[in-house]
Amino acid sequence: MEIKIKLDRQSKTPLYRQIASQIIDNITVGTLKEGVCLPAERKLAAILGVNRSTVINAYHDLEKQGYVTPHVGKGTVVTSVQFREQADSFGWQELLSGHGESLMNAYNFTMSELLRQRDLIAMDSGIAAPELYPKKKFAEICQKILFSEADVILQYDSAHGIRSFRETLTSIMQNRSVEVSPDNIIVLNGSQEGLDLISRILLEPGDCVIMEEPTFLGAIDIFRAYGVRIIGVPVDSDGMVVSRLENIICRVRPKFIYTIPTFQNPTGVCMSMERRQRLLEIAGKHHIPIIEDDAYGLLNYGESETPALKSLDKHGNVVYVSSMSKMLCPGLRLGWMATPPSLTPFVAAGKQLTNLHTNNVLQRMVDLFYREGHLQDHIIRSRRYYSDKLHLMLAALEKHAPRGLQWNKPTGGFYIWATLPENLSAIQVLQEAVKNKVSFVAGPVFYHNSDGHNKIRLNFSYTKPELINEGIKTLCYIIKNSLKDPHKWSNNEIKPMV
Ligand SMILES: Cc1ncc(COP(=O)(O)O)c(C=O)c1O
Asked: What's the predicted TM-score (pTM) here?
């Protein structure tokens, strides 16, 4: 049986609502009959060119409205009319604010579910290698803290974060040549919280934000949820093409510029020093703040270190955000923000309103992990390990790549950015790849307007070294095969088979 879903990406209706309502139409007109299984989430996501979480949200929405029921081993099944009538009839959806509506498009119900389902060579992740997680040392330190500091550490503390950890963070930032006072650091539940906080403080619906494009999809989702217009500036091998900036700034007066200058996600590119200087000059001249996301800054596998943008900031217009997620482990949910002094009280107040402060035990655990010298060792070990994985992936690409597949050679971070030959569709290749137990991220999610249809992001940090060659070999085989059948790569209207 065939269902038709056509997405309008310009529409204000979130994609998950569009998918859900078109499935309801199909159920109502009888194209989808009671008892029929909907396409698997991953499959429908690949076909529609959306995040899997968007399809999952659509299916959750349908479930809440009683149109479908999830069945273990069977999938998502269209329910009977009788059952549908008994479903939640309060109508919460009609009560959602504009912000509430837009949140759902970004919400990923399934981060942990996805991780549990990993029976494939996952080159789609953005995760630090679990084999490096310092489990034993963490257990020892945690025990020590709870024995000796429990009365203090289990109490409420300042919204800024515990003082000793903020001092540690100033030392960590010195490795990025950033000098800030602990008074201007706010410890966060991951750097994503920082991007949300700064958006909450600075953005109004209708504002413009400039970002590199492609860029971190979490940031696109956050800015979108605040109802702003995103203006993309392309990235080349030297980072954001800042020569385009001045024109855009004069035209749209952006609220801020968001950038990942060092080992960018998804391209792995490091912005040149000349461009960093120029970016600061332009932003300073026009009084535009810059949000520097330095999540990968310390994961450098090259010969030279490029200092953080913040270290060159003479005007005090750079807000620096970073994280323990990539250099240590993401599940800690520890990040931080270094703000210009006049902004700090607002960020602290925002933080306090949301969750008072970040978990003290974890702050202190990582604080001691650093003070005892383990974090420094961990970073040295991680750099070596990821550098080896990067080179394994580059060697596998050299060996197996079909003619026309192009990729870059980053010197840090987690990702290789590649362009498919002959304009193949990344989404279609991904569909085949997943069938063959290999995954990557298709380019469009990294663009606010879903460009990048023939781009792919390959992650090398997460996959076990012994699987990297096999993963790339399979992927390259799929690309070669796809080239033999180019006519199947055009899809404006999506017709998933049910
Ligand atoms: C550039 C960038 N910033 C921020 C984050 C989010 O990190 P955190 O886990 O600290 O919220 C990520 C995660 O992928 C990222 O790639």
From this structure: 0.83
